[in-house]
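WARN retry 2 of 3 for item q-0093 after timeout on previous attempt; input resubmitted unchanged.
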Amino acid sequence: MIAALRAALVAGLTMTTSPAAAEPSITILNFSDLDGWESDDHNAALKVFRNTCADLDAPDWRAVCAAAPTFGDAKSFFELLFRPVLIEDGKEMMFTGYFEPELQGSRVPTARYRYPVYAKPPEVRNGTQWLSRREIETTGAMVGRGLEIAWVDDPVELFFLQIQGSGRIRLPDGNALRVGYGGKNGHPYRSVGQELVRRGVYQPHQVSAQVIQNWVKRNPVDGAELLRHNPSYVFFRSVDQVPAHKGPLGAMNRSITTLRSIAVDPAYTQLGAPVWIEKQGADPINRLMIAQDTGSAIKGAQRADIFMGTGDDAGRAAGRLRDPGRMVVLLPIQRAYALLPEAVL
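OK item q-0093 returned
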C-alpha cells in the first residue's frame, strides 16, 4: 500500500489501514488549486496552528513551528514552508460536524438531577471490552463507587454528550463544570439513527440528533431501549483547568477552535497539520483548518468532522452538516515530496 503510506506519512503517523483497503493515491497540488485560498483569514488559521505545533516532535515540524513567529504574513508562511497534498483512498469525501454540548446538572443528586456522569472505573482497560451500556445502566455495577463527576437532568442529552466526547455542565449556581473524554467500555459504536431507519420510523434524510432526541422524549420506554442499541459507553474526566472562553480539549490535549479545528483519521492525516477544507452543500466552507482531534466514526483519508462550537445553536448546525467536498493536507515541503512514489521523483 504505497510502502505503508510512505512509512506512515514519513514517520509521523500510526498506520492502521487494512492491507486489503484500496491503495491510497497521493497528489501534490499548488496553492492556486485550492478554491478560495486567496480570500481566507490565514492569520486566524496560523494562530490555531501555533496552539498545537509545539507538540509535533519530528524535526521538519519543529522547524516550521519555530519559523512561525518570524513571518509577518501568515499566508506567506504557509505558501513558503508547506505544500498542499491530496490523499485519497477511493472513498468519497464526507464532512460532518460536532460540537460541545451544554447540559444542566449538579454536583450532587437531586430529584431533578438523577442521571450520573461517570468517571472510568479502574478495572476498565483500553482495548478490552467491559460491561455494555445496557449492563452499566441496569445492573448497578457503577453505583456507590464514588465515580460520579456530576448528575444531569436529561438522559438523552447525556447520551449525546457521550457521542461528542466532551461538554459543559451548567450548575445551579451559574458556574459550569467542563468534562472531557476519559475512556470507554470497549464496545463498538452502533448508530441509533440508523436503527430508527431500519425500523422504518424515519427515512435516512430525516434523521438528525434533534429528531432522535425528540423521538426518545416522546417515547421514554422505547427510547431507553433505543439508546441501549448502542453498547458503547463513554466515561469522562473533569477538565476544569480549561478556561471558560476556550474550546474543549481535543485529541492533542489542547483547546480546539470553532470552525478552525477538525477531527480526522490519524492513519492518513497528521494530527497538528493544517488542512484546507472545501465543503460543499447548502453552506459551503472554504478555509484553512487544523487537524487537532479524532473520532471513532472518522475513518478514511477524505473524512473530517468540523468543530462547530458550544451549545444548542452549534449542536443544531452540527446536526445538519453532512456534505461532500475535498480536504487537502498541508505538509512541510520535504515531507510532502517524500510521500511520492519513487517513479515520480
